[in-house]
Here is the input.
Amino acid sequence: MIWHLIKVLTAYRPNKLSKKIKQETKGLHDEIESHPFFKSMIDGSLSNECYYVYLFNLLPIYKSVEYFVLGENIVPDLKQSKKINQDIVEYSKICNVRLDANNFFCNEWLAHFNKKSPFLKKTELYIRWLADLYGGQILKKNIKFTNKYEFKDVRKCIKIVRKLIEKDLNDSNVNEFINEVNKSYNFHKNLADKILALKFD
Ligand code: HEM
Here is the structure.
């Protein structure tokens, strides 16, 4: 496990602007990492129902990034929506929860995403894909169905994602990118709060 983590952490040497993004969003990453929702994912106490609703909420975000940012030439290893769909099917067999508008909380987030420029849409690629490729490798230990966190080649995927972001990143747009990443962390926090407040039979 430790060797695997070291391999993930040394996958790619980020450029100076990527390092700036990491530094300036670290506060909110640390906050989300210690949010009760993600803490309970780590210790295995998050219910299957909560995690099922979480996947249901994230799926349209992933699909939008794949459609608008990654396009058709996406390598199969990065096709997260397909893996999430597989997980959703598995959870539907063990969770007695109806997925509908009453437990979908991402309309505002999606509306915000749709208004963003093609470059700023990459903030969701940064957040969601790197979350799966880094933190996800730790989180998956205590998750029942983990297709979302399975990659044939984590290092290669990290490299592709980072390069796609760095391609358009420059000194004039990095602060805007950071702003959007911070907004996305807040959308995540809000989603996690709402899901934890749900009551399941
Ligand atoms: C308990 C939950 C989590 C753990 C243990 C965790 C752990 C980690 C670790 C070890 C890294 C690599 C840090 C490094 O390169 O030094 C990382 C990076 C990252 N994580 Fe998390 N994470 C968690 C939750 C999240 C969540 C919920 C999100 C998104 C909402 C997220 C987004 C990211 C991003 C975007 C990066 C890349 C940062 C960068 O290098 O610029 N993480 N995480």
Observations:
- The chain is about 70% helix and 0% strand.
- Residues 9, 21-22, 29, 32-33, 38, 42, 126-127, 130-131, 134-135, 138-139, 185, 188 surround protoporphyrin IX containing FE (CB under 6 Å).
- Residues 48-70 form the longest helix (23 residues).
